[in-house]
């Protein structure tokens, strides 16, 4: 089920951080890739593993210290990485547009290849929790549907399972801000090629063909414990997202956070950590 190519691991030259890089070989779906990653609590080799999947404009650094704090709370080790096109991972060539099924490709091809390259065993994956935010939440859902025996459970925060008007409107507004304010320079601190990161995400979400994208059919394949979290003040999605998850995954647990927008790990970290800990540790 997983890509058998193991890749080659190399330490980052940046000694001021714990980030490293792994080389993934080319496959039918992508060329050779260099993926930026970081271990959390790496010495706790026998602890369950939490794999963090960032949002559409995210990266390792944009998580800040939240993954570490959550791993400490859960008694887990963690893995954070920047998907291709983000952070210091291989940038998206500017002439390449993400396909409509770009999130499926991340769940089906990139994440399994990364786990293989990092020698995360089958038994290790059975103790693994995938925690995703926004686009990363959608990828986490798709991964759990594709590989139902490969992990212990799933936590998704502000995920997308279909395209809403509010999402498209907010993403169009973000494009305006990127092109007219200092947003580009602020994001440039987190991405080696900020235009690659921004327009890869922005172009696909504003592509009229993407309005028909949905992953609701895949949801019924999810068998693992699943927690879905949404803020009431999210300007990128409504409660219809997690309600749709519950309609297709009857065992899913939903948490709705008051006074919280699209990024609960920044807007309401204590409430978020409490909800995740109560779910995972029970």
Shape summary: globular
| Rg for CA atoms | 17 Å
Strand order of the largest sheet: 1-2-3-5-4-6-7-8-9
Q: Tell me which CATH architecture applies here.
A: 3-Layer(aba) Sandwich
Order of helices and strands: EEEEHEHHEHEHHHHEHEHH
What's the total count of β strands?
A: 9
CATH class: Alpha Beta
Uncertain residue ranges? 1-17
Main sheet? 9 strands, mixed
How many alpha or pi helices? 11
Helix content: 25-40%
How much of the sequence lies in strands comes to 15-25%
Task: Give the name of the CATH superfamily.
Answer: Alpha/Beta hydrolase fold, catalytic domain
Domain AB hydrolase-1: 51-275
Enzyme class: lyase
Keywords: Lyase
EC number: 4.2.99.20
What do you see in this structure?
This protein has 282 residues and is an alpha/beta fold. It has one domain: 3-Layer(aba) Sandwich (Rossmann fold), CATH 3.40.50.1820. 37% of the residues lie in helices and 18% in strands. It has eleven helices and nine strands. It has a nine-stranded mixed β-sheet, sandwiched between helices. The chain is globular and about 45 Å long.
């Amino acid at each position: 089920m997983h890509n058998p190519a193991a890749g080659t691991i190399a330490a980052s030259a940046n000694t001021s951080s714990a980030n490293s890089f792994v080389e993934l070989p080319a496959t039918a779906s992508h060329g050779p890739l260099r993926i930026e990653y970081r271990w959390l609590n790496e010495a706790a080799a026998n602890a369950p593993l939490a794999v963090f999947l960032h949002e559409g404009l995210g990266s390792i650094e944009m998580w800040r210290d939240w993954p570490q704090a959550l791993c400490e709370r859960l008694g887990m080790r963690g893995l954070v990485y920047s998907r291709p096109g983000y952070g210091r991972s291989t940038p998206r060539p500017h002439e390449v547009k993400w396909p409509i099924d770009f999130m499926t490709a991340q769940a089906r091809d990139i994440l399994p290849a990364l786990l293989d390259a990092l020698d995360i065993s089958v038994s290790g994956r059975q103790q693994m929790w995938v925690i995703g935010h926004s686009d990363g939440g959608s990828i986490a859902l798709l991964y759990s549907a594709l590989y139902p025996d490969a992990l212990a459970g799933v936590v998704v925060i502000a995920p997308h399972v279909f395209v809403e008007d509010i999402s498209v409107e907010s993403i169009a507004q973000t494009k305006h801000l990127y092109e007219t304010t200092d947003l580009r320079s602020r994001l440039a601190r987190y991405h080696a090629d900020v235009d690659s990161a921004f327009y890869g995400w922005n172009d696909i979400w504003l592509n009229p063909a993407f309005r028909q994208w949905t992953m609701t059919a895949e949801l019924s394949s999810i068998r693992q414990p699943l927690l879905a979290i949404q803020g009431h003040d999210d300007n990128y999605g409504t409660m219809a997202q997690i309600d749709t998850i519950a309609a297709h995954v009857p065992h899913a647990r939903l948490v709705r956070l008051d006074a919280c927008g699209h990024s609960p790990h920044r807007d309401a970290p204590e409430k978020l950590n409490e909800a995740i800990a109560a779910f995972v540790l029970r």
